[in-house]
Write a structure and sequence with these properties.
Layout lengths: L8 H13 L5 E2 L9 E14 L14 E12 L2 E7 L6 E15 L1 E3 L11 H8 L4 H6 L4 H10 L2 H17 L2 E7 L6 H17 L3 E8 L7 H19 L4 E5 L7 H13 L3 E6 L7 H8 L3 E4 L5 H8 L4 E4 L1 H7 L6 H6 L4 E3 L13 H11 L4 H7 L2 H6 L16 E4 L6 H4 L8 E4 L2 E3 L1 H5 L22
Parallel strand pairs: 1-3, 2-5, 6-7, 7-8, 8-9, 9-10, 10-11, 11-12, 12-13
Antiparallel strand pairs: 2-3, 3-4, 5-14, 14-15, 15-16
Helix pairs in contact: 5-6, 6-7, 7-8, 13-14
The structure holds N-(iminomethyl)-L-glutamic acid and fe (iii) ion (FE).
Length: about 475
C-alpha cells in the first residue's frame, strides 16, 4: 500500500481534516490507496480512530504516538484489516457496511498478565490485610497464594473452566480481545499441567485470543530442590511437547523463588524454545529485573520496587516493562515508576494481573486508566501500553494496533473521543467489542453459555476450609 500523493484531491483533504482535528494525543493521519480493494465489511461512522501505528514494542517518544484519524472507516476482509483511513478516501467495494454512529474506535485491548484460573476466594485475607497484616506475612504463614492453591486443587475442571470463563467475559466487556492466562495455582508438575489443560479448554471455545503461560509461583517448602528438578526434568518438556504454553513465568521474590532458582528454570525453558517472562521487584529488589534482561525475557512484570539501576538495566535491553497498577493500588505499596521507564526509553505495557489476592481488577481498561493516576503515564502512552506494547510483551505482532494486516479486533467506545477509554475509571460506559471483524457479546467472547457473563464467582462448597 502506498501513501497518497501530497495534495491528492479528496484523500489528502480528508487526511488534512483528520490532522486538523487531532488533539493532544500526538497523531499522524495517513491514508493508503483503497481503489480496487474488496472487503467483507466496511465500518464507518468512526468519529475518532486512535491506534498505535504498527506492531510494538514502541518506546520513548513512540510510546506516546498514535495514528489518529477523524471521520474514519475501517475495511475488513477474512477477519483482518485491509484498509483504514478517512471515510471520504474509501474507493473500494464492501459487501456490507456498518455505521458506528459517530463513536471512537481503538484496537482491541491486550491484557498481557492475568491469573484468572482459580477457585475459592481470599475474603479472609482481605479482612486480615485491612486489620494490619501484610500480603507477604499472610503468604509466609501459608495463606494468600498458598490458600488459593488448596482451593484450586479441591475444585473440579468443569468448575474451574466455568469460573475462568466468567472472568474472561468481564475482561472482554471492558474491551479485551487478547488475554494472557497463567497457571500457577497448581504447584506440582501434575497440578500445573491440569491448570494448563483447563486454560486450553477455555481457549478452545473463546473468541478472545487466550495466550496460556506456565507460571512457577511459589516454592514447595517441603522439597524445594525436588520441585525444581521436577519442573526442569518433567514439567517443562511436557508443556513444550504438548504445546500447552509457549511462555514460562517465574515469581522472583523474597517469599518465592530466588534468582539462581529462576535462572535455572528460565534457561531450561529457553533451551526448549519457550519464551520467558518474570514477576519481579514486586516487594523487594532481589535481582529479578536484571535476570530478565540477562536472559532476554519478553517482559518483566510488577516493578513496584524498581529504582534507577533497574530502569537503566531495562533501558539497555529489549524486555518490555509491564505495569500492574491494580496490585499496587490493592496492596498499598509504592507504584511502579512508569514515567521514568517511558522517559528512559523502556517500552511499557500494562495488564490487570487479575487474581483474587493482590489485584482483583476485572477490567483491562481500568488497568490502563490507572497508569495515568498511579504511574505517571499520559493518555496516548496508556493506550499504547494496553494495546501494541502489551501484544509485544506476548510476542504478538498482529494484535494491539489497527492497519493493513492487523487482526480486525477493535473496541467501539460510547464517546466521540478515544481518550474516553482512559479518562474514565473502568471506562466511559459499556463498550462494544469486535473480534476478527465480528461484533461479540462478552459471553460469546469468553465462550460462555449465553448467561455466562456474571455467573457467580463461587463453586458450591464454602471456602476457607483447610486454612492454617
Ligand atoms: O502478580 N505476586 C505474585 N503473583 C500474583 C498474585 C497472586 C495472588 O495473590 O494470588 C501477582 O500479584
Ligand atoms: Fe501476577
Amino acid at each position: 500500500m502506498s501513501e497518497p500523493p501530497a495534495g491528492g484531491g479528496a484523500t489528502a483533504e480528508a487526511a488534512r481534516a483528520a490532522t486538523a482535528t487531532d488533539a493532544a494525543l500526538g497523531a499522524t493521519a495517513v491514508a493508503t490507496d483503497s481503489a480496487g480493494l474488496e472487503a467483507d465489511l466496511l465500518l464507518t461512522g468512526i468519529a475518532d480512530l486512535a491506534t498505535p501505528d504498527g506492531p510494538g514494542p514502541h518506546r520513548g517518544p513512540a510510546q506516546g504516538r498514535l495514528r489518529r484519524v477523524a471521520d474514519a472507516a475501517v475495511a475488513v476482509s477474512c477477519g483482518r484489516v485491509v484498509w483504514l483511513g478517512p471515510a471520504a478516501a474509501w474507493r473500494g467495494r464492501a459487501e456490507r457496511t456498518v455505521d458506528l454512529g459517530g463513536r471512537a474506535v481503538v484496537p482491541g485491548l491486550v491484557d498481557p498478565h492475568t491469573h484468572l484460573l482459580w477457585a475459592g476466594d481470599r475474603y479472609d485475607d482481605l479482612e486480615a490485610r485491612h486489620a494490619g497484616a501484610s500480603y507477604e506475612a499472610i503468604l509466609a504463614r501459608g495463606g494468600g497464594i498458598r490458600h488459593t492453591m488448596r482451593a484450586t486443587a479441591a475444585a473440579d475442571r468443569a468448575t474451574l473452566v466455568r469460573l475462568a470463563r466468567a472472568r474472561l467475559a468481564s475482561l472482554a466487556a471492558s474491551g479485551a480481545t487478547t488475554v494472557e492466562v497463567k497457571s500457577g495455582y497448581g504447584g506440582s508438575a501434575a497440578a500445573e499441567i491440569a491448570s494448563l489443560e483447563a486454560i486450553a479448554e477455555v481457549a478452545s471455545s473463546a473468541r478472545v485470543r487466550v495466550v496460556p503461560t506456565l507460571l512457577l509461583h511459589v516454592p514447595d517448602p517441603a522439597d524445594r530442590a525436588g520441585q525444581l528438578a521436577e519442573f526442569e526434568e518433567r514439567l517443562l518438556p511436557e508443556v513444550a511437547r504438548r504445546g500447552l504454553a509457549r511462555r514460562v513465568d517465574v515469581f522472583v521474590e523474597a517469599e518465592a523463588f530466588t534468582v539462581p532458582e529462576a535462572e535455572r528454570v528460565l534457561r531450561a525453558a529457553l533451551a526448549l524454545g519457550l519464551d520467558v517472562t518474570l514477576h519481579a521487584d514486586q516487594f523487594h529488589r532481589v535481582g529479578g529485573v536484571e535476570l530478565a534482561v540477562r536472559v532476554g525475557a519478553r517482559s518483566v512484570d510488577h516493578l513496584e520496587a524498581s529504582g534507577p539501576e533497574q530502569i537503566a538495566a531495562l533501558a539497555a535491553g529489549d524486555t518490555v516493562a509491564t505495569l500492574l497498577p491494580g496490585a499496587s493500588l490493592e496492596l498499598g505499596g509504592g507504584h511502579a515508576p512508569g514515567r521514568a521507564l517511558v522517559d528512559a526509553g523502556v517500552p511499557v505495557a500494562v495488564g490487570t494481573d487479575l487474581n483474587p489476592g493482590s489485584s482483583p481488577v476485572y477490567a483491562t481498561s481500568l488497568a490502563m486508566a490507572l497508569t495515568l493516576r498511579l504511574n505517571g503515564l499520559r493518555p496516548a502512552e496508556a493506550l499504547v501500553a494496553g494495546t501494541a506494547n502489551a501484544a509485544a510483551a506476548l510476542g504478538l505482532r498482529d494484535a494491539g494496533w489497527l492497519g493493513p494486516g492487523s487482526r480486525a479486533d477493535l473496541v467501539v467506545l460510547p464517546d466521540r473521543d478515544a481518550r474516553a477509554l482512559v479518562a474514565g475509571l473502568a471506562g466511559p460506559g459499556p463498550v462494544e467489542t469486535w473480534i476478527g471483524g465480528v461484533r461479540v457479546t462478552p459471553g460469546e467472547a469468553a465462550g460462555a453459555a449465553p448467561d455466562g457473563h456474571g455467573a457467580p464467582d463461587r463453586h458450591g462448597a464454602p471456602d476457607g476450609h483447610g486454612e492454617p
